[in-house]
Amino acid sequence: MIRSIVESCGAYLPERVMTNDELAKKVDTSDEWIIQRTGIRSRHIAADGEFTSHLAIKAADQALSRANMKAADLDLIVLATATPDQTFPATATKVQATLGMHRGAAFDVQAVCSGFVYALSVADNMIKGGMAGSALVIGAETFSRILDWNDRGTCVLFGDGAGAVVLKAGEGKGTAQDRGILWSSVHSDGRYHDLLYVDGGPSTTGTAGFLRMQGREVFKHAVTNLAAVVGETMGKVGLEAKDIDWLVPHQANKRIIDGTGRKLGLSADKVVVTVDHHANTSAASIPLALEAAVTDGRVKRNDLLLLEAMGGGLTWGASLVRW
Ligand code: UT7
Questions:
Q1: Domain containing residue 162: CATH number
Q2: I need a surface site. Which of 73, 164, 191, 272 has the fewest CB within 10 A?
């Protein structure tokens, strides 16, 4: 059975760090409120002239060099973003050109904060279907560009960054002990599209628009939907929560992360948390968290990782990966 083995990961965060205290000078908020309600202490903000593609290329370069691979060897780039450089072409094609990959296919996937799980599942299925032997999956965002910096309900929550993984086709026995992506589940329910959206776009206002969110409503859906999709994904592979070595969740809010960990009965030291210093980087948050835990030695070969996310759409999903 063909499995998509995760060969390596890479990450990039813009240099500039913005603290909660700095935000408190712009809007009516406080370090205390932000930490208590979200767990966020600081976030990285892209410099003027630093675009989503630039962040993506840096994360991709690191992932490729750690996999000892050249971009020219790749068959596929799938880039998850809700903040592309331009309406079109896909940011993935700019990344493809800069990396020096002139064959195969490159395209964007748009599922907002669930984008990385969606992109991973698309790439995995293209590898399993024989359409690609290798793939670069990237989550990259510059949410700072679509924030209303006068809206304290949203501007304190997000940050910029990018993360990437390299996948390669490998052989598995078809069991839960195989290395690679064991299963991904993705869902959406468009009835809730106006709980978290951007109030602009090429076909409506002709401007990029600003992010708008009914935070409390999104929070409620996140808790329910994440529990359901995690249960579904574990069930598909025939594994139980006790088998999980690391929960690598989307980093929107520490309270949501803690709630999911508690429901699974996982102790806090089995949960990767980066929301404190990255804030919510949307599609980039899972690969950024993954890279942090791999680089500091927490995640080891053959560990079972559960990735999960929920975002605008509403969209949500989970992946089980044996590292
Ligand atoms: O990644 C995509 C998915 N997104 C999410 O998962 C986000 C989900 N939602 C959340 O994380 C939380 O709902 C928030 C962090 C956005 C908000 O936390 P909350 O505990 O749900 O607060 P709230 O929206 O119910 O607001 C409570 C109070 C309000 O004041 P009143 O009406 O009680 O007087 C807000 O106006 O806190 C106020 N508030 C703030 N105060 C200081 C809202 N934002 C701020 C702020 N600083 N930045």
A1: 3.40.47.10
A2: 191
Written in H, E and C, the secondary structure of the chain is: CEEEEEEEEEEECCCEEEEHHHHHCCCCCCHHHHHHHHCCCEEEECCCCCCHHHHHHHHHHHHHHHCCCCHHHCCEEEEECCCCCCCCCCHHHHHHHHHCCCCCEEEEECCHHHHHHHHHHHHHHHHHCCCCCEEEEEEEEEHHHHCCCCCHHHHCCECEEEEEEEEEEEECCCCCCCCEEEEEEEEECHHHHHHEEECCCCCCCCCCCCEEECHHHHHHHHHHHHHHHHHHHHHHHCCCHHHCCEEEECCCCHHHHHHHHHHCCCCHHHECCCHHHHCECHHHHHHHHHHHHHHCCCCCCCCEEEEEEEECCCEEEEEEEEC
280 is an active site residue: yes
**158 and 40, same structural domain?**
yes
pLDDT tens by residue, 171-215: 999 999 999 999 999 999 999 999 999 999 999 999 999 999 999
Domain that holds residue 276: 180-322
pTM for the model: 0.98
Tens digit of pLDDT for each residue in 7-43?
Answer: 999 999 999 999 999 999 999 999 999 999 999 999 9
What are the pLDDT digits (tens) for 214-250? 999 999 999 999 999 999 999 999 999 999 999 999 9
User: Same structural domain for residues 201 and 123?
Assistant: no
- Quick one: 134 and 83 in the same domain? yes
Which entry of 9, 20, 54, 250 is annotated as an active-site residue?
A: 250
State how many domains the chain has: 2
**What residues line ligand 1, using a CB cutoff of 6 Å?**
29, 33-34, 37-38, 113, 152-153, 156-157, 215-216, 218-219, 222, 252-253, 256, 280, 310-311
